[in-house]
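pinging the channel bc i need a second pair of eyes. not urgent but kinda urgent?? the chain im working w is below, pasted from the shared doc
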Amino acid sequence: MGAVIGIGAAAKFARRWGFGLWVLAALPGNVGCKKLTSALKPQPVMFNRPRVDAALGRMLEKIQDDPKFKAVLAKGPEQASGEKVDLAVTSTGAYGELGAQLAAKGTARLSPGQFLEVMQIKLKLADKSPKLCAGFWSGGITTADLGEALDGLNDADLNRWFELSAQATHLQLYATTPLPRFRGQVLVDGMRDIAATLTPAEAEVFMSTMKQGTSAAPTAGCEAFLKLSRGGLSFPDPRRDQFLRALAFDTLVDW
């Protein structure tokens, strides 16, 4: 049963979908230049989950000595410039926000294959955690929520998540071009096609959730997130990549 999805509904839905990879949001909010060296060292109890903290530590070891990474942190959050993307995970302090923005923006620069991996692992995280799944729709995910879900991944997916985080951060640090832009019509057309696969009852709930946007009930938001993610992953390339990127980065969509 088809359902008409307008641009306004799509835009309202897309808010807060920019989860990115959330790498550095736990950096101390009051770090100064004198504390920079210690702040860059891996923090073994960031998530209070040994497997997750170990994987994060390995990632931080790869980027902590990068001169551009050090330079960005040395300048401080007040010197950060450029458009921000919405984050589903609540960052910790100004430096947390700065680090999270680096990773999230870099995620938009990943290759199609890498971005597909991000979305596939993100869907696994949503399947393992109803709280995280709802947060992918409305935001407000905490460090504890994310850590619990990450700890449920197998070793390969957990390590790959942080490898992609490091790659995304690197891409943003060394970027020489503006962030990519995505066509809103690709998003709207994809949502219409996904809605057309639903039963009348499912389509009614789906449309209601779309209209409510981020104020929808957590279970409804989670279900809409799963339908849109799975539907988008089922599209052939290059449509799949274009749809999923537009879905993930509403601030980068041209309506």
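so The radius of gyration is 18 Å. and Residues 174 and 239 are 27 Å apart (CA to CA). — does that match what u expected or am i reading it wrong
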